[in-house]
Design a protein that fits this description.
five-stranded parallel sheet, 39% helix, Rossmann fold, five-stranded mixed sheet, GMP Synthetase, Chain A, domain 3
Length: 657
C-alpha cells in the first residue's frame, strides 16, 4: 500500500482509520444489507460513528487496558466497537455468537470483560442469564432494540443513545479522542481472541497491534491486494480469519467490507456483492458444489450434457490455463466457448465471478473439489495458520498450487520441523501470551519466539511446500507399528459430498474403524431421486441403501490408502453411520466445527467397543440438547458394516508396475 505516511506511524487501527479519512474520505468503507437494501458508510462517516461510540464508551468508564466483549453476527456497529475500544486503549474480545450462555460466561469471566457490546435480544438474554456469574461486566450495549422495549435494567444501553452521550462527552472534552488515539502504540494489546477449545477450556490469545497490522500488511504485499477489493464478512467475528480478512486487511489496504443481512441470505448477498477477495473453509466450497450438482440433476437433459461436456474440458485444461502454462490453441478456443456458455454463468451463480483470489484453510480440501474451482478460473489457494500468529504461517504461491500442500512460508515467517515431526514457526505475528495462563504460554512459545503448532508435517522434497498430516498428539500407531494419522483419513472421507463428518479410531488397535455423519441434504437429495422414503436423519442414516453408498466412499478411501507404503495398513476395516449429527451444543464439536475427538470417543464408547467386536449391530442411547435448550434422549440400533480392505502396494511393487 502506497501512502504519504510511513508504516511505523500507522501502528494502530484508529490511526489507520484517520489515515483513510484523509486519503479516501468519500470511498465506501462498510456496507450492510438491511431489509433487502444495502446501506453504505464512507470512511469519513464510519470515523464519525466510531468517534461518537468511543466517547460514549469512555463516559461509561471504559479505558486503557479494559476489555470490551463483542457478541453478534457481522454488523458494522460491532466492527466499529472494536475500533472504538482500540481508540481508548481498551481491548476488544469477540465471542462466538452461537455460544450458549455457559460458554460465554467462561470467556467473559476469564477475560475480565468490563463492558459488552451485543447485537440483539438473543445476546442480551444470554448476558442476563450469566449476569450473576460475571460481576465484572458493568454495562451491556445492544445494537438492535427489537424485543427489548420492556427491558429496564439500568446497565442496559441502546447503541444510538450511547452515541448521543458520546457526542455530549466529545463536546465537553474536545481534545480527548485525538489524545487517546495518539497515545496508542503498536506494542499495545490490540485484540484478544479465544481458541476454539478443542481439548479443554478456550485460551485467550493476546495479540498486539503490531502482531495484527504487520501480518495483515505482509499478506497484502504477498498477494498484491489493493484498496479496490470487495469482501463479504460472513464468518464469525470471534474467529481469527475474519479479524484478518474482514477487519485488519481492510484497515491496512483501505478496501470495502460488506455484511450480509443474515446467515440465510449469505449466498444471495454473495452474488450481489461479487467479492474480489474471498475466504471460506472447505465445507462452504463443498456445500456450493453440492448445490450445483443438485440443481444439475434437475436441469434439462441438454443442459446436463453441455455442463458435463465443458466441465470435462475444464478439468483437462482449466488449471493449466490458470497457472499460465502452455495450452494448445484449439483447447484454448474450446475453453473460451465453455467460459461463455458454462463457466462464467456458473461462477455468477456461485457469487465468485469477480473473485481473483480465494483462500481456504482449517481442513484439507479434496483434490477434486480444489480442481473444480481452479478449472473454472478461480484462483483458490490453501493457507496454513493459527490464531497464535494471526493466521499466516504458509500460503501457496501463484502457479504453485497443489491440493496436498499448504504452500511456502509467508513473508517474514520462519518454519522448521522439530525432531519429533512437529511444525514450529516464528513470525512478526506471534502472540504475546495466553491471558492469565503462563504455563500454557511457556509450553507453546519458546523464549526465542518459536511456536509449537501441535501439528505434524514435513516439507515436500519435490516442491519445498509444507504438508500437514495430522495433529502431532493424534498421530499414533496401530499394533503392527503402522503409522496412524486419523485426521488424514477423516479428511479423505470428508472429500465425498455425502460425508459431513468422520471420526476415525485405531491408535494401539489392530486396525482402523470409523464413525460417520452423513450430509443430510446431499444424501437426502440422492435418496429422493431414487424414490427412497425417509422420515428424518435417523431413518435415512439407518437404511441399507445409504450404507452401501457410504461403503463405496470408504472403499475408495481404502483403495487410495493402499498406495501409500506408510499408511496403507491403516485402511478402515469397519464403519458405522451415527444416528445423530455431531453438535457443538452437545460438546462434540467446537464452535468452529472441529471434532472433539476425546469427547466423541468417551460419549460413544459403547460404539467404539462394538466396532472392535464381531457385532453387526449396537444399541445406543444419547442425551442431546435441542435448540430451545431442552435436553432429551435419542435411542437407536446402529448397524456396523465391514469395508473392503485392499492389499498394500509397496514402493517396489509400484515401481515394477
Amino acid at each position: 500500500m502506497k501512502s504519504e505516511e510511513s508504516g511505523d506511524s500507522l501502528d494502530t487501527f484508529p490511526k489507520l482509520l484517520q489515515h483513510h479519512v484523509r486519503l479516501r474520505p468519500n470511498r465506501d468503507a462498510m456496507r450492510e444489507k438491511d431489509l433487502g437494501i444495502w446501506q453504505s458508510w464512507t470512511w469519513a462517516e464510519a470515523a464519525a460513528e466510531i468517534r461518537a461510540l468511543a466517547c460514549g464508551l469512555a463516559s461509561l468508564g471504559l479505558g486503557r487496558g479494559d476489555k470490551l466483549a463483542i457478541i453478534g453476527d457481522n454488523r458494522p456497529r460491532l466492527y466499529w466497537g472494536m475500533t472504538a475500544a482500540q481508540a481508548l486503549g481498551a481491548v476488544p474480545v469477540p465471542l462466538y455468537q452461537d455460544s450458549v450462555a455457559d460458554e460465554m460466561a467462561y470467556v467473559l469471566d476469564n477475560a475480565d470483560v468490563k463492558i459488552a457490546l451485543v447485537e440483539d435480544q438473543e445476546q442480551v438474554d444470554k448476558m442476563l442469564e450469566v449476569r450473576d456469574r460475571c460481576p465484572k461486566v458493568e454495562h451491556v450495549i445492544y445494537d438492535d432494540d427489537r424485543g427489548l422495549r420492556y427491558y429496564e435494567q439500568e446497565f442496559l444501553h441502546e447503541f444510538e443513545k450511547l452515541q448521543e452521550a458520546g457526542l455530549a462527552f466529545d463536546r465537553e472534552n474536545p481534545d480527548f479522542y485525538e489524545r487517546e488515539v495518539a497515545a496508542g502504540k503498536g506494542s499495545d494489546t490490540g485484540i484478544m481472541l479465544y481458541t476454539s477449545g478443542t481439548t479443554g477450556n478456550p485460551k485467550g490469545v493476546v495479540l498486539s497491534n503490531d502482531n495484527v497490522i504487520v501480518t495483515a500488511r505482509n499478506g497484502i504485499l504477498r498477494e498484491q491486494l489493493t484498496d479496490r477489493e470487495e469482501v463479504l464478512a460472513y464468518l464469525p467475528m470471534a474467529w481469527v480469519g475474519d479479524n484478518l480478512f474482514s477487519y485488519a486487511q481492510s484497515y491496512v489496504a483501505g478496501f470495502c467490507v460488506s455484511c450480509p443481512e443474515d446467515g440465510s441470505t449469505v449466498a444471495h448477498d454473495l452474488r450481489e456483492i461479487g467479492p474480489t477477495y474471498y475466504f471460506a473453509p472447505p465445507r462452504v466450497y463443498e456445500n456450493m458444489l453440492t448445490q450445483v450438482m443438485i440443481r444439475m440433476e434437475d436441469a434439462a437433459k441438454i443442459k446436463q450434457r453441455m455442463f458435463h461436456y465443458f466441465m470435462a474440458h475444464a478439468r483437462k485444461v482449466g488449471v493449466h490455463i490458470l497457472n499460465g502454462e502452455a495450452v494448445g490453441l484449439f483447447d484454448r478456443l474450446k475453453y473460451a466457448l465453455g467460459n461463455m456458455l458454462v463457466y462464467e454463468p456458473l461462477k455468477d451463480v456461485l457469487g465468485l465471478r469477480r473473485t481473483r483470489l480465494a483462500y481456504t484453510a482449517g481442513e484439507a480440501i479434496g483434490p477434486e473439489l480444489f480442481d473444480f474451482y481452479r478449472s473454472l478460473g478461480i484462483n483458490i489457494k490453501q493457507l496454513y495458520g493459527q490464531t497464535e500468529c494471526m493466521v499466516f504461517v504458509c500460503v501457496q504461491p501463484d502457479g504453485e498450487v497443489y491440493a496436498d500442500t499448504v504452500g511456502t512460508p509467508a513473508i517474514d515467517v520462519e518454519v522448521r520441523i522439530d525432531d519429533n515431526g512437529e511444525i514450529m514457526y516464528r513470525s512478526p505475528g506471534v502472540f504475546q501470551e495466553y491471558y492469565k495462563n503462563p504455563d500454557s504460554t511457556a509450553s507453546t512459545k519458546t523464549d526465542d519466539g518459536w511456536v509449537h503448532t501441535g501439528d505434524a508435517g514435513f516439507f515436500d522434497d519435490d516442491n519445498g511446500h509444507l504438508k500437514i498430516i495430522d495433529r502431532a498428539k493424534d498421530v499414533g500407531k496401530l499394533n503392527d507399528g503402522t503409522l496412524f494419522a486419523p485426521k488424514y483419513i477423516e479428511n479423505k472421507l470428508k472429500f465425498f459430498s455425502f460425508v459431513k463428518e468422520a471420526v476415525v479410531f485405531g491408535n494401539q488397535k489392530d486396525n482402523s474403524t470409523a464413525m460417520i455423519n452423513i450430509d443430510l441434504e446431499a444424501v437426502g437429495n440422492w435418496a429422493e431421486r431414487r424414490g427412497l422414503a425417509y422420515t428424518g436423519y435417523i431413518d435415512l442414516a439407518s437404511q441399507d441403501d445409504v450404507y452401501h453408498l457410504i461403503k463405496d466412499c470408504v472403499d475408495q478411501v481404502n483403495e487410495d490408502l493402499s498406495h501409500d507404503s506408510h499408511l496403507g495398513n491403516s485402511q478402515v476395516h469397519r464403519f458405522l453411520i451415527l444416528h445423530k449429527e455431531l453438535d457443538a451444543d452437545d460438546g462434540e464439536l467446537t464452535r468452529t466445527r472441529k471434532v472433539r475427538r476425546g469427547t466423541v470417543g468417551e460419549r460413544y464408547q459403547v460404539l467404539v467397543d462394538a466396532l472392535y467386536s464381531d457385532l453387526n449391530r449396537c444399541h445406543v442411547e444419547t442425551e442431546v440438547t435441542f435448540e430451545d435448550g431442552r435436553t432429551g434422549v435419542l435411542a437407536a440400533d446402529i448397524k456396523i458394516w465391514n469395508a473392503h480392505v485392499h492389499p498394500v502396494r509397496s514402493a517396489s511393487r509400484e515401481a515394477a508396475a
